[in-house]
Amino acid sequence: MFYAISSQDGAYSASADTSQSSQDTTTISFIQEIGETARQIAAQNDLYASVMIAQAILESNSGQSALSQPPYYNYFGIKGDYNGQSTTMQTWEDDGSGNAYTIDAQFRSYGSQEESLQDYAQFLQKDIYAGVRKSNTTTYQDATAALTGTYATDTSYGSKLNQIISEYDLTIYDSW
User: Fold this and answer.
1) In this structure, which of 20, 107, 113, 143 has its CB flanked by the most CB atoms within 10 Å?
2) Per-residue pLDDT, 4
3) CA torsion 104→105→110→112, rounded to 10°?
4) Which residue segments constitute the domains of the chain, with CATH numbers given?
């Protein structure tokens, strides 16, 4: 079981009772590393922190992918460039029918974790992602459904995010 502990200033820290859990300690550490910053940025941008954190876990392999490591800090697999900074890496795509293939793609490169999280929040302000915002949804499941086929080509994207959110009890980061 994954737990968040609220401090007097409202910040959350994560802890885990691994006695009855198969949760990955790398993922728990990653959640502890980005959770509070994600909560703050999500609150400022009408987003679900649980979805933000789950996407970072899924897209970056809990902060272990080459793209998520310094000097890139790209936790979300956002393509293009950020303030002129980018790197090219191989990535998997889904043809929309569940068939995977690889391509070389240009990805944004950030100077810090916080820049990555902030840019992700700004990226989701595009009209195509209106269905992801808290003000336009009832639950985080509505938001993850809105990401499937728009943010990611993976046809199972929303259900993968939902599983991560549930397994690590990430909704505790959704309270402002």
Assistant:
1) 143
2) 40
3) -50
4) 2-77+112-173 (1.10.530.10)
Q: What is the mean pLDDT of residues 102-122?
A: 97
89 forms bridges with which residues in the sheet?
Answer: 105
Burial of 100 (0-12, 13-18, 19+ CB in 10 A): exposed
Question: CA–CA separation, 75 vs 62, rounded Å?
Answer: 8
Share of the chain above pLDDT 70, in %: 87
Contact between residue 143 and residue 130 where contact means Cβ atoms under 8 Å apart: no
Nearby residues of 176 by Cβ (< 8 Å), 6 or more positions away: 39, 43
Instruction: Encode 71-123 in three state secondary structure.
Output: CCCCCCCCECCECCEEEEEEEEEECCCCCEEEEEEEEECCCCHHHHHHHHHHH
Mean local confidence (pLDDT), 107-134: 97
User: What are the residues facing 148 on neighbouring strands?
Assistant: 152
Q: Which ranges of 16-73 would DSSP assign to H, the alpha helix?
A: 25-44, 49-60
